[in-house]
Write a structure and sequence with these properties.
The protein is α+β, with helices and mostly antiparallel strands. The protein has 3 domains: 179 residues, no CATH class; 120 residues, Immunoglobulin-like (Sandwich), CATH 2.60.40; 100 residues, Immunoglobulin-like, CATH 2.60.40. The chain is built from 6 helices and 23 strands. Strands 1-2-3-5-4 form a 5-stranded mixed sheet, covered by helices on one side. A hairpin with a 6-residue loop joins β21 and β22. α1 crosses α2 and α1 packs across α3.
Length: 430
C-alpha cells in the first residue's frame, strides 16, 4: 500500500540518485526539480534538473483491482488502487568545453543501469532530504518495488517533447521511466466476517486457492553423503540408487504420492512415507531414495520425467504443477578396456543402468567425439559403439547420453566426502 505522496517520493528518490551520480562525475553540481531552466547567459553553472513530464496508467495493473464494489448494492468490497507509470526528463547543464553535461549523464546512466530498483533505504533518504512535505509517505510499504528504466526516444519524439517546454532551449537529457507506482484510495472496505465455527477435528476451512502443493529445488547425491554437514555440492541429475532431497511447500496432508511420467515407460506411482521421519530431511523436504534393484532396471528409463505430487487430505487430493526430473544413465562397465584399434576402428561395449529403450537416442562422448550407439530392437543394458576413425587415448573419461541426459563420471571419496572422477568410467584406446 502507499498513499498520495508516492509520486513525490519517487521524484525525490530519483533526484537524490541523479544528484549523487552527477556529483561523483562533476563536483559542485546543483539539483533542481521541475521543468529545465538553463543558467543565466554566460554562466556555466553545473546543474541537473529532474522533471516529471508525464503520468500514465499502468497497462498491466490498471484493472487488477476491479471490481471494487458489489454489483448488487454498490457496497465497497475492495480498496481501490491506482497503478501509475511516471516519465521523467533529466537534463544536465555545465561547461560544454569541459564536457561536464556528458560526464554527468554518463554517471547517471551507469548507476540507473546498475541499480534500477528503488530500495527502502533510498526511499528513507529521499524522505529525510525533503523533510516535512514527505514525512507521511509510506512508499516503502508498497508491495511493488519501483524500477527505473531508460527510455529511447526518436528524434521526432524528442523534438515534440522539447517543443512543449516553450522558450526553453534544448539541453543534453536522459528520459527514464518509473514503474509501477501504486496509490491506494482513502476508502476502506468493510472487515471480513468473523469465523463462527471451526472445521471438523479443528482443522478449519479447507480451501483450494493458494494451497496447491509445490515442488522446488532439489539436492542430489548418494545416501552416505546426505548425512554430512554441511551437505556436499549437489549432482546435476540423479541416477538409480541416488538420494534425492526435494524442497516442498508446507503440506497439510494425510498421504503423499509422486506420479512420474516418462514418454517411454509406464506411469510410476510412488507412495512417499508421510509424515517424513527421515533424519536427513529438514522441514518442508522430502527425502527419496531412488530404487536400484532388478525391477528398477526395467521399470525406469533415463531421460526426462514429469513429476506431480498428489497430497491427499480428508479424501480430497490436490496436485502440484508439473516438476521436471532428469534421470541420468549410469555406466557400469566398459569392455574391452583398453581397446585396440583395428584398421583405425575401435569397438566398445558399454553396460549401463537402467535399460535403454529401443526408441531412445543414445550416444557416447569421448574426448571431442560423440559416437551414436549401434541399432537395437529391444530394451537392453548392453550397448555397442563403433568409433571410426578412433583416436589414441589414455584414461579418457567417457559420458553416456540417453535422450539428452548425461551420465556422471564421478564417485564419492569416503574419506573427504568430496566428488572424485570415477576411474571405472575411463577408457584407453591403443
Amino acid at each position: 500500500m502507499s498513499n498520495h505522496l508516492a509520486i513525490a517520493t519517487v521524484t525525490a528518490a530519483l533526484g537524490q540518485l541523479v544528484f549523487r551520480s552527477a556529483s561523483d562525475a562533476v563536483s559542485g553540481t546543483d539539483l533542481r526539480y521541475g521543468r529545465p531552466q538553463p543558467p543565466t547567459a554566460g554562466s556555466s553553472a553545473r546543474r541537473v534538473h529532474v522533471y516529471l513530464y508525464q503520468v500514465l496508467p499502468h497497462a498491466g495493473l490498471r484493472n487488477a483491482d476491479l471490481p471494487t464494489r458489489s454489483g448488487s448494492d454498490g457496497r465497497l468490497v475492495a480498496r481501490p488502487q491506482a497503478a501509475l507509470e511516471l516519465r521523467y526528463l533529466v537534463s544536465f547543464y555545465g561547461d560544454d568545453s569541459e564536457l561536464e553535461p556528458d560526464r554527468m549523464l554518463g554517471a547517471v546512466a551507469r548507476d540507473l543501469h546498475a541499480r534500477p530498483l528503488l530500495t527502502a533505504q533510498q526511499i528513507a533518504d529521499a524522505i529525510a532530504s525533503m523533510g516535512t512535505p514527505l514525512q507521511d509517505s509510506d512508499l516503502a510499504d508498497s508491495i511493488e518495488r519501483v524500477k527505473f528504466t531508460p527510455v529511447g526516444l526518436s528524434l521526432d519524439e524528442l523534438s515534440k517533447l522539447w517543443s512543449v517546454l516553450v522558450q526553453t532551449p534544448h539541453a543534453l537529457s536522459l528520459v527514464c521511466h518509473a514503474s509501477v507506482v501504486l496509490i491506494d484510495a482513502l476508502e476502506r472496505a468493510a472487515p471480513v466476517l468473523p469465523v463462527l465455527r471451526r472445521g471438523e477435528q479443528d482443522r478449519g476451512v479447507d480451501t483450494r486457492l493458494g494451497t496447491l502443493p509445490q515442488l522446488g529445488d532439489a539436492w542430489v547425491g548418494w545416501p552416505d553423503s546426505a548425512a554430512r554437514q554441511p551437505r556436499p555440492p549437489s549432482l546435476r541429475a540423479p541416477q538409480l540408487g541416488a538420494r534425492l532431497i526435494v524442497q516442498t511447500s508446507p503440506l497439510a496432508a494425510d498421504s503423499v504420492v509422486l506420479r512420474l511420467t516418462h514418454p517411454q515407460r509406464p506411469l510410476i506411482e510412488w507412495t512417499v512415507p508421510w509424515p517424513v521421519t527421515d533424519p536427513q530431511a529438514r522441514p518442508n523436504e522430502l527425502a527419496l531414495d531412488l530404487p536400484d534393484d532388478a525391477a528398477a532396471q526395467t521399470d525406469w528409463a533415463a531421460g526426462l520425467y514429469s513429476v506431480v505430487l498428489a497430497a491427499t487430505r480428508d479424501g480430497r487430493t490436490s496436485e502440484s504443477p508439473v516438476w521436471p526430473l532428469l534421470l541420468a544413465p549410469r555406466i557400469m562397465a566398459i569392455t574391452p578396456n583398453p581397446v585396440a584399434r583395428v584398421a583405425g576402428v575401435a569397438t566398445l561395449g558399454v553396460t549401463c543402468r537402467p535399460q535403454v529403450q529401443p526408441l531412445q537416442a543414445v550416444s557416447l562422448r569421448i574426448d571431442e567425439l560423440e559416437v551414436p550407439a549401434e541399432p537395437r530392437v529391444a530394451a537392453t543394458d548392453t550397448l555397442s559403439f563403433v568409433i571410426d576413425p578412433a583416436p589414441a587415448l589414455t584414461a579418457q573419461l567417457v559420458w553416456l547420453r540417453v535422450d539428452g541426459a548425461l551420465s556422471q563420471p564421478v564417485a564419492l571419496d569416503p574419506v573427504s566426502g568430496q566428488f572424485v572422477f570415477d576411474d571405472a568410467q575411463r577408457v584407453t584406446i591403443t
